[in-house]
Amino acid sequence: MALFDVTLDAQDGHARALSFETAHGVVRTPLFMPVGTHATVKGITVDVLHEIGAQVVLANTYHLYMRPGAEVVREAGGVQEFMGYDGPMLTDSGGFQLFSLDHMMKADPDGVSFKALDYDGSKHRWTPERNMEIQQAIGADIAMQLDQCIGYPAEKSAVAASTRLSWEWAERCLRSHTRADQGLFGIEQGGMHLDLRLASAQHLIEAERHAQAEGMGRFAGFGIGGYSVGEDHEIMFETLGRAARALPEDRPRYLMGVGNPTTLVRAVREGVDMFDCVLPTRTGRMGTAFSSTGRMNLRNAKYARDFTPLDHACSCPVCRNYSRAYLRHLVKQNEMLGGMLLSQHNLFFLIDLMRRAREAVLAGAYEEFYRAWMGSAAAKDY
Question: Where are the beta strands (DSSP E) in 3-141?
C-alpha cells in the first residue's frame, strides 16, 4: 500500500472501517487520537501510549512553533524523534489557537497577524504558505491546512466569510505543501449552516482538482472543523451527517475536537472516521472517569471504601490494578498520579470503544452496536 492510499475494509450503513499507510505505520479507523499539544500527552508516557493502543497522536503547530520552535523540532529529526514516539502523528495547524487569541489576532485574505500573549507577547505573521513551512519542519505524518474557525453563535454572514477564507487558504496550502512523506488534510467549515458546509466541501474538491491539473498533490483526508465550538451536540448532529458525507468517500473524515464517547459512537454512524479531543485527559485530571455505567466523579464520598475496580467492564491497566477507593484517595489528595491514572483509563476507554466500533463495522453489525450503546448506562457521559 502506498502512503495515504486508502482501503475501505468494510462499510455498514454510513459507518466505515478504513486503512491507510503513513510513514510511521498503518492507521485503521474508526479511531480516537490522544492530544499531545506540546509534543506530550499530559501525564502519559510513550510506553503507556503503546500499551493502551494509541494509533495516532496529535501535536499542535502553534505551541511547538512558539516553544521550542519548529527549527528545534526539525533539527531533532522531526516531532517523533523529538518526543521519542515511533507511531503516526498529526499536527493541527494552530488556526484554532490563533483565533482563540481573539482581539490579539487579525485575519485578512492573505493570512493572519497575531500577538502571542500566552507566551512572550511577541508579534507574528502567518500565511497559509508559512504555516505549511512550519508543519513540514515539525514533520508529523499528517498536517492540517491553516483555516479560520468561528465560534457559536455567530451571524451567518460572519460564518460565510470565515468559510470562504478557509477554502481559499486550503488551495494555497495544497499548492505549497511539498513533503511527500506527509499527508495534508483540507478542512471543511461552515458552522451550523448546511448550505455553507456543502459549499465548503465542494470548494475543497475543486481546489484539489485545480492543483492536480497542474501536477500537484491531493488532500490525504479531510477535517470537519467548526463544530464543538459552544453549540449543543444535538445542534451539531442536525448537519453533521450530510456535511461529512459531502466529503470524498475515498479519504478519511476527521471530526475535530470532539471526544465524549456517545458522540463518537453517533458520529461513526454518520460516516466519520477519526476523532480527537483533550476531554479524556482534562476530565481525568479533574477526577472524572468514563465508564460502562456512565461518567464517574471520583471525588464522590461513595467511593471512599469501594475496593472494586474502577470499571468492571474495562481491561485497561488502571482497572486491572487499582481500586475506586485508592483512585479517590489520590484525587482527594491532589496527587498527580490520580490524574495520570484516570487520564490513562479515559484514553483507553475511547481508543477501545473505537476498536469495538471497527469490529462491529467489519462484522456488518454497527447498527446493533449503536443501539446497544445508546441503550446502556455508558451513554450517560455528560
Answer: 6-12, 15-22, 25-28, 31-33, 57-60, 89-92, 105-108, 111-115, 123-126
Number of Cβ atoms within 10 Å of the Cβ of 299:
12
Q: Is 92 helix (H, G, I), strand (E, B) or coil?
A: strand
The answer for residues whose C-beta is within 8 angstroms of residue 381's C-beta and 6 or more apart is: 260, 261, 262, 290, 294, 295
Among candidate residues 12, 92, 147, 273, the one labeled active-site is 92
The active-site residue, picked from 141, 147, 276, 311, is 276
Q: How far apart are CA 210 and CA 129, in angstroms?
A: 17
Residues 341-361: tens digit of each pLDDT = 999 999 999 999 999 999 999
Query: Residue 379: is it exposed, middle or buried by C-beta count within 10 angstroms (0-12/13-18/19+)?
Result: middle
276 is catalytic: yes
17: phi then psi, degrees, rounded to nearest 5: -125, 115
The pLDDT tens digits of the residues spanning 295-316 come to: 999 999 999 999 999 999 999 9
Distance CA 255, CA 244 (A): 8
- Tell me the residue length of the chain: 382
pTM above 0.85, yes or no: yes
Which conformational region is residue 316 in: left (phi greater than 0), alpha (psi within -120 to 50 degrees), or beta? beta
Query: Is residue 157 classed exposed, middle or buried when 0-12, 13-18 and 19+ CB atoms within 10 A define those classes?
Result: exposed
